[in-house]
Amino acid sequence: MTTVPAAVGEQAGALDAEDALAPLRDRFLLPEGVVYLDGNSLGPLPAAVPPVLTDVVHRQWGEGLIGAWTEHDWWDAPVRVGDAIGRLIGAAPGRTVAGDSTSVQLFNALGAAAALRPDRTLLVTDPGHFPTDRYLAEAVARQRGLRVRQVRPADLERFLAEEGDQVAAVSYSPVDYRTGELYDLEALTRAAHRAGALAVWDLCHAAGAFPLRMDDAGVDLAVGCGYKFLSGGPGAPAFLYVARRHHENLHTPLTGWSGHADPFGLAQDYVPAPGIARARIGTPPILSLLALEAALTAFDGVDLEQVRAKSLSLTGFFLRCAEELLAPLGFTAATPSDPARRASQVSLRHPHAYGLVRALARHGVVADMRAPDILRFGVNALYTTHQDMLTAAVRLRDITVAGDYDPTPQEPGAVT
Amino acid sequence: MTTVPAAVGEQAGALDAEDALAPLRDRFLLPEGVVYLDGNSLGPLPAAVPPVLTDVVHRQWGEGLIGAWTEHDWWDAPVRVGDAIGRLIGAAPGRTVAGDSTSVQLFNALGAAAALRPDRTLLVTDPGHFPTDRYLAEAVARQRGLRVRQVRPADLERFLAEEGDQVAAVSYSPVDYRTGELYDLEALTRAAHRAGALAVWDLCHAAGAFPLRMDDAGVDLAVGCGYKFLSGGPGAPAFLYVARRHHENLHTPLTGWSGHADPFGLAQDYVPAPGIARARIGTPPILSLLALEAALTAFDGVDLEQVRAKSLSLTGFFLRCAEELLAPLGFTAATPSDPARRASQVSLRHPHAYGLVRALARHGVVADMRAPDILRFGVNALYTTHQDMLTAAVRLRDITVAGDYDPTPQEPGAVT
Q: Record keywords: Repeat included (chains A, B) (predicted)?
């Protein structure tokens, strides 16, 4: 028990020693003694958040009262925070707005996309997509008299080439949330455009994890959440990106007053604001939104190419540990070994995934699982170390060898 | 300047001396020296909020990490907070859900209402309704092939009696947000039902301000915000009430994963949860939602009939002050003097409303205005005193007499 093979132990130490991003870990308040590999479900608390929230609550709200909307510029927070997220997803200022949940933003994005292709009858999405994406594709299709086709990412280019002429929009994630497989967002975007369709991307498992190029890749619309790799806090506001070329003709279904051209004019008719502001809906949850804004400062001065390189180092190292320590115990990797096809997580399969993840948590390693048999280990290069990965692999080995877990299959109650 | 007529001065003191709700003021952290009469735009900071937020951020999120969703029962917060709001609007448990913005909840409510009356072609709303309500009625109508008719509340009963057979739903507020006039929610609900239509109410300016009886009045659906009389903080999550009889057939347009019968099963098809939980959409903004939950404890043990009585005393007294001190200066009351037709605000008309409200703020009295000529003074019986009302009237008189304000008409940048 707890013996660590010398080779991987030395490798972990060497990789951490040469990690230029190591100081960023101090930007997070991680609990002592916990290896946190579930930041792809809920990012940990950034150190910048508590003082900002204290200021927002006591000084801005408590003392500023209604005047804080202008005095502390709460009103512009959705576009200001949107721009901060835009910097992480390759979007120029004025193309991203923060607010609402991913589900609501998806509804707005898919509705707007369908309206931009009124002569087409299909929405295409991934049968392996996160459920809310599929549910909302169905909802938008039902309301607009469209049909939904489910096509796996691997088959999408062929499908679009052969049957793409009726496709209004494709709705995909660049990351399979279960396996951590990375799809080629830019190639699939080009394939959608060749078919005359729009490309709508869900960046929940991508934003903040690796470089993205919304503008340069010609993505039409994208959404994502604020609480995974962006570490904005539980249920942090989501975001919506809209390519500049679509702004003038963007008609979102949720025409709330905040998206009006003159929101305080309280006019009789809805006139959408120019630019991305027309994608605003109602009054945003300021406490959660400004917590997200503070959290995003953890990325200040950070090069996402370096984040990507370290993330691949972490996941590659973990795959090596898994091969050496866990494969003999019946674990298999669900995540591609090819770095180009690997997002910022490693998923392992084991029939006792649920019990093993629970036991790991008791031993200070927080991961999560997806039914029926996937253990997910998310890495965030801003705070994860190679030693963390080794600890996770060693403890998982020890728990498995000792049989120190409940082998009953069971559904977990966790949030992706 | 600053002389106070003895009669109103004595009356203020006497009314405050016999105010049984006076101790509730300690439940709010009001800034020193400020008379805050804009709690109908943004409620002040309740004392219960900061310690809860500190706990939520540091212990629940910071230390609990992903496990907090179950350990601290974040998952059930939307229905738990919904039930706490339900107690204030006359709704039994399990009929109200908190989350999202009023605009999003309205879209869901109006979409669900239209779906419950699929054979009807009209949505009816108030031309004086808050803009987002009208914009979203238009949005839902457009998406479902309906038409919107705008009918003033005073004409609604007659309209429904004569032309109600094509009305799917009526969408109204019991309070005119500009004048503070109170409409008869229960009589209008009955009139809608006589026509076979559903009654959808926007309670933004009502919830927490006076007693409401959603269940007993037979209201079909209702929405409201968390940041006015509920004092849940800027952009606090909104709520949706749905009458028990509609739960089984409730089909909201925004079918996000949180409303699924088995949200963690991540099933292929959307199956709505039983009960009010099916009206959940995406992942809720937990920081803002738990701040709202803490804010609602300001109502613990409070009798809303007493709140109503004190509110009428405050607004009645202010109308008397206005009559004595301000009418001679050209101010007229836009709020009905009949208590049965008065919500929890007093609106005065003056052509220089904008400059006067700005000047008042400089003199420590925070009110707001609505273009072109309305000064709004909102009262919240949980913390407003009769002395506050007198101070507001006296300072407004003094500013007006001294001409100590900018008479330029101008649009304000404030949030209702």
A: no
In this structure, the strands spanning B198-202 and B147-150 are unpaired
A53 contacts in B (CB within 8 Å)? 53, 57, 287
| pLDDT > 50? residue B415 | no
Question: What's the Cα-to-Cα distance from A388 to each of A209, A312, A379, B318, B355, rounded to whole Å?
Answer: 17, 14, 9, 65, 61
Q: How far is B50 from chain A (nearest CA, A)?
A: 7
Instruction: Give the separation between CA B153 and CA B173, rounded to whole angstroms.
Output: 9
The CA distance from B413 to A381, in Å, is: 42
In CATH terms, B6-30+303-402 corresponds, of 1.10.1740.10, 1.20.120.330, 3.30.1330.60, 3.90.1150.10, to 3.90.1150.10
Hey, are the CB atoms on A100 and B101 less than 8 Å from each other? Answer: yes
Q: Domain segments of chain B: what residues?
A: 6-30+303-402, 50-299
Average pLDDT over residues B124-151: 94
Q: Which of B134, B45, B108, B138 is nearest to B238 (CA)?
A: B108
Nearest to A285 among B41, B237, B270 (CB): B237
Beta bridge partners of A292: none
Contacts of A194 (CB under 8 A, 6+ apart): A160, A161, A164
Q: Which of B210, B172, B178, B205 is nearest to B334 (CA)?
A: B178
- pLDDT (tens digit, 0 to 9) for every residue of chain A, 416 residues total? 568 888 999 999 999 999 999 999 999 999 999 999 999 999 999 999 999 999 999 999 999 999 999 999 999 999 999 999 999 999 999 999 999 999 999 999 999 999 999 999 999 999 998 889 999 999 999 999 999 999 999 999 999 999 999 999 999 999 999 999 999 999 999 999 999 999 999 999 999 999 999 999 999 999 999 999 999 999 999 999 999 999 999 999 999 999 999 998 878 889 999 999 999 999 999 999 999 999 999 999 999 999 999 999 999 999 999 999 999 999 999 999 999 999 999 999 999 999 999 999 999 999 999 989 999 999 999 999 999 999 999 999 999 999 999 998 765 444 44
How many alpha carbons fall within 13 Å on the CB side of residue A285? 34
Within 10 A of B413 (CB to CB), how many other CB atoms are there? 11
Contact B239, B223 (CB under 8 A): yes
Secondary-structure class of domain A6-30+302-402 per CATH? alpha beta
Which residue in chain A is spatially nearest to B268 when comparing CA positions? A131
Closest chain A residue by Cα to residue B61 = A45
- Asked if B350 and B375 touch (Cβ cutoff 8 Å), the reply is yes
* ipTM of predicted assembly, 2 dp: 0.97
Fold classification of B50-299 is Aspartate Aminotransferase; domain 2 (3.40.640)
Calculated CA dihedral for residues A325, A330, A335, A339, nearest 10 degrees: 40
User: How many C-beta atoms lie closer than 10 Å to residue A206's C-beta?
Assistant: 25
H or E segment at B124?
strand B122-125
Nearest to A411 by CA among A381, A372, A356, A379: A372
